[in-house]
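One-letter codes give the sequence; the fold follows as tokens. An example follows:
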Amino acid sequence: MIKKEMIAMLLAGGQGSRLGVLTQKVAKPAVAFGGKYRIIDFPLSNCINSGIDTVGVLTQYQPLRLNTHIGIGIPWDLDKNVGGVTVLPPYEKSANSEWYTGTANAIYQNMAYMETYNPDYVLILSGDHIYKMDYEVMLDYHKANKADVTIACMPVPIEEASRFGVMITDENGRINEFEEKPEHPRSNLASMGIYIFSWKALKESLNALKDQKNCDFGKHILPYCRDNGKRLFAYEFNGYWKDVGTLGSYWEANMELIDIIPEFNLYEEFWKIYTKGDVIRPQYISADASIDRSIIGEGSEIYGEVHNSVIGADVRIEKGTVIRDSIVMRHSRIGENTHVDKAIIAENVAIGKDVVIGVGEEAPNVAKPQVYAFGIATIGENTVVPSGVKIGRNTAISGVTTLADYPNGELPSGGVIAEKDGE
């Protein structure tokens, strides 16, 4: 029988609805990040850098791009005969077939996969955070404390603590209690959704709660472990960690990459971030172009100006066009004399000429004010924007749009245009 000390289970099935049109056709972990990466590259690279060579990736919502991206795991050196990376979608079983209904239910449905490796420890990860972490150091901490469960936590400002699951520990780091999104937090140690379980404890708790509806780690498994005398410890992490769950935090995390000395360095030799690289031509910057403080992906052609922006691979920006404080993802085309200010433009978007994006005062979004906020104009993938229109802030556009969709040639701040694209 194969024996692995620790295997990782990466939860990548989330829809990421707070990213609005960015995740309409693609799972959140597959959303592009930093010009050449996808969000899932970070936990996968952490695994291989931490010496973990067996990773199950649990997918569910819109998995196609994620599956294509991961393939057989070559970029992360996870194409192994034994172990390696395995994509685990929900599947039909003889008695019943059901979708994953909660984070723990998804892990429970893959018990047979984990059994194959008979691990001593199982590392549970989310597929939608940007960070670098050595899971081996966390495992050493888990062993030293003879823990049943170790939860990675990070100190957050106390006024933000009510957004997280908060751990209350003794002086040795042992968790006495925890509160899920407490109104009046008694600690500022927030759970990062990264857990190491001893296999026995994980198996016992999943089996005990197998009939629990929407079974979830934070809400059900951890309380069960605590109430049944398991040893729970908090592992404090002090590095860079970003949950890119909202358009605001996603935009911010991208913008932080272009600081002169970025807080999060993508290019450290000893802790590489691996990704599936498409071999394409080098970038072309014309003599008249002007670029500052930006990341420009390979194969891109720049004839206009780019300031303080992150441009993906194979993007074309025509002459007279100015891009500022924006993210433009791969394969998008932006026509001549267009001005883009604080926008997120997804993959394969075509924008006409003489368009102004990010104009006027902010106004709350008419459809989803809590999603389309932060003053950002968001354009979903495969969208077409006709020439000569003006688009305000806190707006969302998706689908093939025509001039008729823009009364007076304008989409005012807070507006939404969602066309059906041939579905």
In short: The mean pLDDT is 87. The CA atoms of residues 263 and 374 lie 22 Å apart. The first helix runs from residue 41 to 49.
